Amino acid sequence: MLKAPTHQVAGHQAQNGKLGPLVDDSGLFYKSLQDGGRGSHELAFYTSFSSNPKVPPHIRRFFPEFHGTRLVEASDGSGLLPHLVLGDLTFEKPNPSIMDIKIGSRTWAPQQPKDYIAKCLKKDRGCSSPALGFRLEGVQMYAANETGYWKPERKLVQNLSAAEVGLVLRKFVSSNTPSDCLFAPAIYGGPHGVLSLLLELKAWFEEQTVYHFCACSILVVYDKEIAGRGTVPAGVEIKLVDFAHVLDGRGVIDHNFLGGLCSLIKFISDVLRT
Amino acid sequence: MLKAPTHQVAGHQAQNGKLGPLVDDSGLFYKSLQDGGRGSHELAFYTSFSSNPKVPPHIRRFFPEFHGTRLVEASDGSGLLPHLVLGDLTFEKPNPSIMDIKIGSRTWAPQQPKDYIAKCLKKDRGCSSPALGFRLEGVQMYAANETGYWKPERKLVQNLSAAEVGLVLRKFVSSNTPSDCLFAPAIYGGPHGVLSLLLELKAWFEEQTVYHFCACSILVVYDKEIAGRGTVPAGVEIKLVDFAHVLDGRGVIDHNFLGGLCSLIKFISDVLRT
């Protein structure tokens, strides 16, 4: 009953016999453990996080539900492999619009080997992260009565200028006409909108010294149909994902993540202001 | 009438015929223009900043007064050289306690040449910046009835762990007995204390996209005698200094500076809490 997710904007994809995540029809998302120790590192994070009393209850909603691990048939046909069992963020959203935003001007940890850092620095030079403090990893936007989904090339969105990122953030909450920002008040604004949620997350990052979220993404998900009906909270969700490089905070706040988060908040605020 | 400043904790020093800053007896500080284009870059910043209408008036007090440039006899005896004329931050403070805190986990700009970045990365590895988001560049603390000034070696303070930085921040506001934090409420706390000032600065950095303050320091200055008398504002001052590497913000907040500033704020808050 497992199948490749319909709405994936970043990360490895389960298609043409490649290894990637799977979903079932009960709202679960199965993420195969990545190689090179990253999978076990991510599992260790989920295990630590799910039982850490230092994480306040209201912060847990910014993380995917964690249901342990399960051996399932891998998408690449290589047999039974351990998978993380997580909540499926697009479950019961028929037409989800999604942004995957990798947070932090630096996507590597200072204590990593020189060669690895050199490789990352080279990659970073080809994307928005050093300049903006974050980069778009992938975007899809449901353009209701028009062409279905707008889903620009991943490589393209990773290397946008500040002005271009501003345009994508506007288009993400627009109706068919590009950049009318029709849905900005419902999606970005209001007490349950993206800006409020990001500010709540920011308040935690100003205090918490438990984890450093290196190379993590924030997923922004909403459904235009649900938003259009004017329901609150309009189906807006913010989740942190990808914990293969989370480090011990060692008594210091995650200034790299927080700086990038503040930069993203400024961009979202600017859309709401204009 | 010019002489080397008595209370300098970081930067080049005018002693033994070397080039360094000078002060006069009217409260002015003369900073010789640094070579390699850094001096003219810093002058360009002061000129731009002093007339930039985007800088709110209440933020100007976080920057040294700028009185243009003047040709004065250089401290190294090399003749008349152009100097920036700035306010002397220790003027009329008989026994100033001073911290020079270089802000940002990264002290180089992403667009600088590869070789320069490699050199900076190597230097950064030997100091606190990547881990803490800032580093102490220099400290002096007036220990009233004891030994005069406590002034640890610069090289030593640049490479402290989180726990050690916490200890220095406590000692900086303590009476003779180390770390009693007797002056913490007067210096770090209250409406005119360091924490309030840093929070005000932070609010600006969450918004401003005009400048990126690469490799800048925050100077924290107070006078224990003045603080002891219980006057408000207890002579506490916060100033940004060293603008040889300021860059155009290009529509993005200075996430590198802001992240480090938030980390420093967390450290100061922790001293006030315990």
UniProtKB/TrEMBL annotation, chains A, B:
<keyword id="KW-0808">Transferase</keyword>
<dbReference type="GO" id="GO:0047326">
    <property type="term" value="F:inositol-1,3,4,6-tetrakisphosphate 5-kinase activity"/>
</dbReference>
<dbReference type="GO" id="GO:0032958">
    <property type="term" value="P:inositol phosphate biosynthetic process"/>
</dbReference>
<dbReference type="GO" id="GO:0005524">
    <property type="term" value="F:ATP binding"/>
</dbReference>
<comment type="similarity">
    <text>Belongs to the inositol phosphokinase (IPK) family.</text>
</comment>
<dbReference type="InterPro" id="IPR038286">
    <property type="entry name" value="IPK_sf"/>
</dbReference>
<keyword id="KW-0418">Kinase</keyword>
<dbReference type="Pfam" id="PF03770">
    <property type="entry name" value="IPK"/>
</dbReference>
<keyword id="KW-0547">Nucleotide-binding</keyword>
<protein>
    <recommendedName>
        <fullName>Inositol polyphosphate multikinase</fullName>
        <ecNumber>2.7.1.140</ecNumber>
        <ecNumber>2.7.1.151</ecNumber>
    </recommendedName>
</protein>
<dbReference type="InterPro" id="IPR005522">
    <property type="entry name" value="IPK"/>
</dbReference>
<dbReference type="GO" id="GO:0008440">
    <property type="term" value="F:inositol-1,4,5-trisphosphate 3-kinase activity"/>
</dbReference>
<dbReference type="GO" id="GO:0005737">
    <property type="term" value="C:cytoplasm"/>
</dbReference>
<comment type="function">
    <text>Inositol phosphate kinase with a broad substrate specificity.</text>
</comment>
<keyword id="KW-0067">ATP-binding</keyword>
<dbReference type="GO" id="GO:0005634">
    <property type="term" value="C:nucleus"/>
</dbReference>
